[in-house]
Amino acid sequence: MNNGYPRWKRMFWMLMSGLVLFMVGKAILPELLVAGTEGVAIVRVEGPILDSSQTVRELEAFAADPLVKAIVVRIDSPGGGVAASQEIYNAVKRVRQEQNKTVVASMGTVAASGGYYIAVATDRILANPGTLTGSIGVIMQMANFQELLEKIGVKSVVVKTGKFKDLGSPFRPMGEEDRQLLESVMNDTLSQFIEAVAEGRSMEYTEVEQLADGRIFTGRQAKSVLLIDEIGDLHDAIQLAGELSGIEGTPRVLETTKPFSFRAFLESAFLGDIRALAPSRFSAPLLYLWMV
């Protein structure tokens, strides 16, 4: 009899160690095999576009990665702020022009207004047949509480340096000069949208202008009026991005993993995007937004 460690126990632990090593190897081997190979990155634009910083950072990081040969911008958004949409649009153009990388847009359920604005900066646009897109236009919404305040005996007192300083105030009626000024700003902002679409889609300004009345299209309708290139889903967009950038076979897919936030989870579950969007509507910004 062996007075040392029992043989069966040694065999048992050797077997267990081998099993653990096998399982670990099976889990990480695929990653090790593709590590260092060229791939396609996915950048997601989801929900109302109120801030561009996170999306721009992701685009810049992937643009600087030599192993990322192409980027798919996955858009599932009704649009949002004009400036935020334009900043992402410009970031996409920089990736293409300065880094010489292919960028393909993949439209999800909705890619309207500011979401579509971003898409026209890419090399190709794919949408599902039932994707809702288009909504080329600008909107500004303001509430007016003047009559309500008068009923409850509250009067607003404003001290200002110019007649337009309280433009859009909810405490006084909008005059004709106010309306004309706001319309001139909105028309210029709409013109910027039309110019971006005309450039991105290789269309005449007048052609886009005929579609720029805020109407929405399904993916199939959008293809018929040249607002998108092809019908296809995210998988198709990844494959196309790989092909256009010279990757053979199925591309390796890279995506930024966002850190989990319990607070963000609760806000999303109970408030959705309402809290984030509500202040924007009352501060009356210009919006590239499909209002639903």
Could you please describe the fold and organization of this structure?
The chain is 46% helix and 17% strand. The strands form two sheets. Strands 1, 2, 4, 5, 6, 7, 8 and 9 form an eight-stranded mixed beta sheet that branches. It has a domain at 38-137 and 214-289: Alpha-Beta Complex (2-enoyl-CoA Hydratase, Chain A, domain 1). It has helices at 7-34, 53-64, 82-97, 114-119, 146-151, 176-201, 205-209, 219-224, 234-244, 262-270, 274-282, and strands at 39-46, 68-77, 79-81, 102-112, 124-127, 132-134, 216-218, 230-231, 252-255, 287-289. The termini are far apart. By secondary structure, it is α/β, with parallel strands linked by helices. Mean pLDDT is 86; it is low at 273-284. Helix 2 runs parallel beside helix 3 (82-97). The longest helix is centred in the first third of the chain and has 28 residues, at 7-34. Strand 4 (102-112), helix 4 (114-119) and strand 5 form a beta-alpha-beta unit. The radius of gyration is 26 Å and the shape is elongated.
